[in-house]
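Researcher: First entry.
Model:
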Amino acid sequence: MSDVAARAARLFAGSYNCCQAVLLAFCVPLGLGEETAARLGTGFGLGMARGGACGAVSGAVLVLGLCGGGGGPTGAAAKAATYARARFFYDRFIERHGSLVCRDLIGLDPTTPEGLERAGREGRFHSICLPLVRDAAALARDIAAGAGLLPGRGG
């Protein structure tokens, strides 16, 4: 059985950014088109292209919203529940990794040419980001499945 965390890691090790990898890993269980997911997640890579919020975190929060979010006058309860699941995700991720911020997690600013080159040369995307992608996908899967929003353990 394929698992979303392993799939996210494979996608990230391929040509997708951290957000895209997490989001794409959930396409099958959520019925989301892969092209749509890849396009949606593009701008969230490298900490929203600014070293800010970790792209894997952004992808996981997008997944939690797709699983049970809502809005407008009839979606207030779904929105509140999604906020609670996102806060739970943030708390667990910080407990495990110390931050939600890309440049803090990888220890440099990947949005500068020097930082990007150094991160690549030192293998930080593989040694640091790959486990973050895997963990963000697994955590989102566990939270969504625990809330009954994914079948089983999410694939």
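Researcher: Second entry.
Model:
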Amino acid sequence: MSMIGQLLYWITTGLLIPVVALLLVFLLRALALVGSSVATALERRRYGEQIDAVLKRKAPAEADFAALSLPKSAPLAGTIAELAALGGVPVHARRILSELEIHHDRSVSTARILSRTGPMLGLMGTLIPLGPALMGLAEGDLASLAENMLVAFATTVIGLLIGAIGFSVQQSRQRWAAQDMARAEFIASVAAEEKD
């Protein structure tokens, strides 16, 4: 093996431990994200019905948005309170809506990172052990070949699992963000009409 080939081999094999460590960290983060998303989904189901009842059953001018009892952890709670207190000032309403949008973008970013980076790390974890596995095959060391192939397959599966979790959570959170933005824009419109 040439000197450049040997150098590249050592660099790539040296990356295996950091890649596996990152995969494990990302897997823990993905599992935590699933837990927080389930809790958020249950919370949203409870207060979503309350908001929809106010938005759908009453005429917009009669809707009492300030009377909604939303949990403080709900991003829409502060937005509704601010919009109701504004009295329909359009410039401030746009600022409040932008802050809600920024909040939701932050909540989606972790899932987005996991959905893209997990499969990449899984692929790296697949390809890195193939070099030592092929060398083991060339030398007739089947134990080394089997060990390296096991690492290659395990990292692929973990990377794809991280990506699947990240993608699923990302889709859910984007849907929640769109729902919250639609509700907040409606409330801002109602507040603006009441001012006129």
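Model: Note on the second entry: The longest helix spans residues 142-195.
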